[in-house]
Amino acid sequence: MDARIVLLGAPGSGKGTQAKRLCEELDLTLISTGDLLRQAVRDNTALGAEAKGYMDAGKLVPDELVIGLINEKLKGLRGGFLLDGFPRNLEQAKMLDTVTGVDIAVELDVDEDMIVDRIAKRRSCRQCGEVYHLAAKPSKVEGVCDKCSGELYQRTDDSEETVRERLRVYHERTEPLTGLYGERGVLIKVDGRGSIDEVYRRIVDAIRGFKR
Ligand code: AMP
Asked: For a Cys-Cys bond, which of 1, 80, 108, 156 suits 192, CB 3.0-4.6 Å?
């Protein structure tokens, strides 16, 4: 598929899980700024060290850092792609416009009580970043990644207090992007409730049936 897709949704809306699967099955290039930033933190790069404090506090990492991190990736993009976690504010959306168009923005819509449950039970692989849920998507062996046998852990920014701050930041900075893409006629809102498979089907049907 060669669509250029942006995935929007609150923390815990299922973006990361759906993004990985969509890219594997629809042959899209995945760019997740959250994953890239966590990798930079693990690699102890200067950028990672600077970004960590913002991430742990549930704040957005400053635009210059994020843009520096993904600029080359965006410029080198060929064919279809899916952006998970970028753009996160209007400034980043403007920057994206200078590099590429966006065919479809998918907004995953979920209730806040569902978000709290999803995040509390989320576990991530330290090594490859694969995401699990203790009930909805458990690993085969507790605490061990199915894909790479890495250790599963709870993200430091998944504590209740930080999640609240991330939600606040989402409403204030990221949600306005639905207005922007809505005005351009490229926004589709998808119900993010239900099983991973159900939500996945809804997204694929919405993307395939999308006519501008
Ligand atoms: P995520 O994995 O998308 O939930 O991102 C985790 C954290 O990384 C966020 O709470 C931010 O601190 C940071 N982050 C990820 N993407 C961006 C972005 N596009 N702009 C600024 N900060 C970001």
From this structure: 108
- Which member of 4, 38, 52, 88 is catalytic? 88
21 is catalytic: no
Residues 6+ apart with CB under 8 A from 10: 108, 110, 112, 115, 167, 170, 171
3-class DSSP state of 110:
coil
Beta strands in the chain (DSSP E): 4-9, 29-32, 81-84, 104-109, 122-125, 131-133, 152-153, 187-191
pLDDT of 160: 85
* Distance from Cα 39 to the centre of ligand 1, integer Å: 12
pLDDT at 40 exceeding the cut of 80: yes
Active site residue 155: yes
For the chain, the domains span 4-28+79-110+164-208
pLDDT at 10 over 70: yes
Strand partners, 152: 125
Q: What is the CATH number of domain 4-28+79-110+164-208?
A: 3.40.50.300
Q: Quick check: CB of 192 below 6 Å from ligand 1? A: no
Output the pLDDT for position 212: 66
